[in-house]
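Lab notebook, design round three. We kept the backbone fixed and only want residue identities now. Task for the bench partner: fill in a sequence for the structure below.
Input structure tokens:
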């Protein structure tokens, strides 16, 4: 009989902790504690979702607890790598919120620690792992329905909600830059859907066009990726208009040699009801496909990996490469 996976959180600064913990619980894990630096209090939503999970006042209580298997890290982005290193040194596996790190030095430390300890360091790229229509798209691509994928075009618009954001949100050193942060989602999807292990950053930019009062915020970013297999275009921003009924009209187009898939992940403005809109066009059909039963396999696979020391949720090398490309794209964008 498989034992229950026990999870705990180091840092709950970002609301992505809701999806990280909630989906692991759905996969059968038990959430047994959380710690957060300073005097930060859990939000009303956190308390509603996890009312019985105790706060640990000293993170060593979590790190030294032999029953805890997996550490979730959703602290301020610049602090995530150090917490993950601590957790791996303590014999724990780690799921970090994106970005999992914000500098190449942090990435080097993560790589060294992971290689030495043999622990799992995984980043929850939620725009793939928490979106059922992306699950279904991955199945269609694997079946060869659209032929060989030669390009992805990913768009990640976000709602700014400026008055509600904490100070660190506007601190470039704290959040890592718009490309390191948001665009890591689209880099992950480019590598995954094109079957790539690396890419050249042809060009990138990061700008503040609309928020001069907060110069540390980068509200627009763009990347062009390419390799011998495929090409990728990425655009991310903080410009979601107020009338949209959700936080952003995230989209992904996957172009194959025999067809294409378009994902309107969170909203379809022509048909606003529901989410996970997948459109498929091939040589013999064009249709909208229901993704309601596609599921979110990453979380169950990660549970299996932690308990069985396998690598089914995401290759470790892929996770490192996504963050490497995001950080390098950010650095290239800021050179000028």
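Proposed sequence:
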């Amino acid at each position: 009989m498989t034992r229950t996976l026990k999870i705990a959180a180091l840092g709950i600064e970002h609301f992505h902790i809701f999806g990280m913990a909630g989906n692991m619980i759905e996969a059968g894990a038990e959430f047994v504690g959380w710690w957060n630096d300073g005097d930060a209090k859990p939000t009303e939503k956190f308390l509603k979702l996890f009312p019985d999970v105790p706060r640990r006042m000293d993170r060593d209580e979590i790190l030294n607890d032999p029953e805890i298997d997996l550490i979730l890290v959703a602290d301020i982005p610049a602090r995530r790598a150090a917490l993950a290193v601590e957790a791996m040194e303590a014999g724990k596996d780690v799921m970090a919120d994106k970005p999992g790190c914000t500098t190449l030095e942090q990435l080097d430390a993560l790589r060294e620690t992971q290689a030495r300890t043999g622990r799992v360091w995984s980043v929850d790229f939620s725009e793939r792992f928490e979106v059922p229509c992306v699950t279904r798209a991955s199945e269609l691509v694997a079946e060869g329905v659209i032929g060989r994928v030669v390009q992805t075009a990913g768009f990640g618009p976000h709602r700014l909600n400026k008055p509600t954001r904490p100070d660190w949100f506007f601190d470039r050193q704290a959040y890592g830059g718009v490309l390191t942060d948001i665009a890591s989602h689209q880099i992950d999807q480019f590598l995954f859907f094109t079957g790539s292990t690396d890419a050249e950053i042809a060009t990138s930019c990061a700008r503040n066009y609309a928020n001069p009062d907060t110069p540390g915020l980068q509200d627009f970013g763009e990347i062009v990726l390419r390799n011998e297999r495929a090409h990728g275009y990425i655009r991310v921003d903080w410009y979601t208009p107020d009338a949209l009924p959700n936080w952003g009209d995230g989209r992904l187009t996957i172009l194959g040699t025999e067809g294409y898939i378009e994902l309107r992940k969170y909203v379809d403005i022509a048909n606003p009801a529901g989410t996970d809109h997948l459109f498929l066009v091939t040589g013999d059909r064009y249709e909208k496909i229901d993704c309601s039963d596609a599921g979110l396999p990453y979380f169950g696979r990660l549970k299996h990996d932690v308990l069985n020391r396998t690598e089914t949720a995401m290759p470790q090398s892929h996770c490192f490469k996504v963050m490497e490309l995001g950080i390098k794209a950010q650095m290239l964008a800021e050179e000028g």
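Keep this in mind before ordering anything: The chain has twelve helices and 13 strands.
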